[in-house]
Amino acid sequence: MLKKLQWSAGLLLFFFVLPVIAGQLPFNKQASTPIEQEEEKRQVVYAANNSDKESTMDSTLETTLETTLESTKDPFQVLILFTHSHETYEPMVQKVSGKVASYDGLTNIYKLKDSVTENFQSNGLQTDVLDVDVMELLKKEGKDMGYAYSTVRPYLANRLKEQSYDLVLDLHRDGISKKASTVSYNNETYAKIALVVGEEHPNFRWNTAYADSLSTALNKLIPNISRGVISKDGEGGNGLYNQDLAKEMIIVELGGVENTEEEINRTIAILGKAISNAFDSDTVN
């Protein structure tokens, strides 16, 4: 009886310690390790793939955003007007009618609006014209040129209320001689430009800053094509020129009375390019 009890106790002890012994055997360790390593590999690979995808997505989003911003950016807006609309150039009038005149109702600076618009737009400038023949209005109302700026003022003010512009140019023809109004460069002649700013209004310094920048850009393209910025304080001049209506407004004296149509058109092309270079960074050449 005693031997049977001893044998039973030994058998129970064997089954009790068997799992412990089995856990210490080499084949169990070798079987468990690869499973853990495979799981770790999958996690690492998955994390790397996610990182690559996120990086690609970030890059794609950034590119898409930049493209969207560029495509939605408003073009540089220019408004041109002609306060002294019948100012003209003697060679142009003589070519058409045979007469010599510095003012003309048919051949004049106002008629250059299409040439100005085309040249400006070819330089990436969205260009509008204040389509008002001011001197024709003066003639109908029986007024002289002294009323030109006050006559065009409500038309300009209304346009600026309807739409904002990056630059407003009032184009004129100066009365200076051919020698003073012409510059030669690379065997071509160009009409010189003068920029006029009135001092009798709060926007004076803003207007002057715009004029200075444009003058510099002009001379970089054609040396000495700009005669510089001329300030008028009202004594012996207007001093206002409706420039109180816009900080970005400049009077442009485009050549003199003796400049030819070819010289004027060459300068108009340079003016458009200079505006792009001076103010519109997306179209700098």
Name the descriptors.
about 280 residues, alpha/beta, Aminopeptidase, 2 domains, six-stranded mixed β-sheet, two-stranded antiparallel ribbon, 8 strands, about 55% helix, about 15% strand
Alpha-beta classification: alpha/beta
End-to-end CA span? 113 Å
If you consult CATH, what is the topology of the largest domain?
Aminopeptidase
Q: What's the helix-strand series?
A: HHEHHEHHEHEEEHEEH
Q: Report strand order across the widest sheet.
A: 2-1-3-8-6-7
What quaternary form is this? Answer: single chain
How much strand content do the residues show? 15-25%
Radius of gyration: 40 Å
Average pLDDT, all residues: 83
The structural domain count equals 2
CATH superfamily of the largest domain: Zn-dependent exopeptidases
Summarize the structure in short:
This protein is an alpha/beta fold and 285 residues long.
Task: Annotate the secondary structure layout.
Layout lengths: L1 H23 L1 H47 L3 E6 L8 H8 L15 H10 L2 E5 L4 H8 L6 H15 L4 E6 L5 H4 E4 L2 E4 L1 E6 L5 H18 L4 E7 L16 E6 L6 H19 L6
Parallel strand pairs: 1-2, 1-3, 3-8, 6-7
Antiparallel strand pairs: 4-5, 6-8
Helix pairs in contact: 4-9, 8-9
Describe this structure in words.
- It is built from nine helices and eight strands.
- The chain is α/β, with parallel strands linked by helices and 285 residues long.
- It folds into two domains: 69 residues; 207 residues, Zn-dependent exopeptidases (Aminopeptidase), CATH 3.40.630.40.
- It has a six-stranded mixed sheet.
- Strand 6, helix 8 and strand 7 form a beta-alpha-beta unit.
- The longest helix is centred in the N-terminal third of the chain and has 47 residues.
- The radius of gyration is 40 Å and the shape is globular.
- The N terminus is likely disordered.
